[in-house]
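Let's see one such:

===
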Amino acid sequence: MRIESRLAQIGSISEPVTGAISYPIYQATAFRHPRLGESTGFDYARTKSPTRSVLEQAFADLESGDGGFACSSGMAALQTVFALFGQGDHLLVSLDLYGGTYRLLEQVMTRFGVTSTYVDTNDLDALEANRKPETKAVIIETPTNPLMMITDLAKVNAWAKRHSLLTIVDNTLLTPFFQRPLELGCDITVHSATKYLGGHNDVLAGLIATKGKELTERVAFLHNTLGAVLGPQDSWLLMRGMKTLALRMERHQSNAIALAHYLQAHPLIARVFYPGLEDHPGYEIQNRQSSGNAGIFSFKVKNAAYVEPILRHIRLIAFAESLGGVESLMTYPAVQTHADIPLEIRNRVGVDDRLLRFSVGIEHVDDLIADLGQALAAAKQEIGA
């Protein structure tokens, strides 16, 4: 079946006893053994839970993976994957990076002897120059958050395989509906499922998909051992959200491209960062390896003084962190999502005091343009041209 059908049917044929179309929430942590030495396949909920198992199998299928693992948050998913590495290991990591990932790498993983170097992962020369004998993996965001930088996954994965490195991709922004890195040869995908997969700003979750039997078994061991697993209620909510992923992603994308074009032509805007625009440097790569674009982009105002009145005057669009929900949200990365990244690094990549990140929801595009337009007009009136 095509992905739209598989999404809509998540869990619908998995309950053989009652035939429930919506898979039940099994709110149980312990499971009865039929007799000594026998198991129903479920023993203890941290290791395996019925509702979570249906979600994990569906997700592995969507990503074309061999294993799927549901975690209590996106950061828990990252920590589970990063636990593959230990004392003396080195990672090559996307330069434009979500602040929470940077915080985890620099303030936690360094305590376990794991070091990271931040590079433009689309630059093979930079990757080669920073590769060390102890390098174990390349960690890629594509598109990056918030500057929407694109990495050619097939190219980088081929380079990584020549050096026996794992390729780990944060696929949060595009989801398996638009991009499937494992089909391009990558080893692991990680998602903050709180975002587009859940899609309604009401469930905190993370997902991991793996390729290959040995790697899948290693991640399964870490998932069970670390124990940051997703509970049955949240697993059910996530499955319910994913059923409409195809419809939502198409609307997110169409709204985002219209708003990106609107801002490109606005006199207060210096630059728009969105790979769906033809002048984006990663436009061709994005079209080659993905079937669409996320509903998120960033833009720079010409004067940093515009930021505060814009955020104060938006009404339909909420000034809030997070992304990927049905409601439109605007964020100021320099003081919110990326505050943990040192100032010199933020300035080097362009996450400065003029940058705003816009997670475009599924509202009517004309209403979003009207709200953004009145906020920009109010900022101009207060600050001047």
Residues 259 and 369 are 7 Å apart (CA to CA).
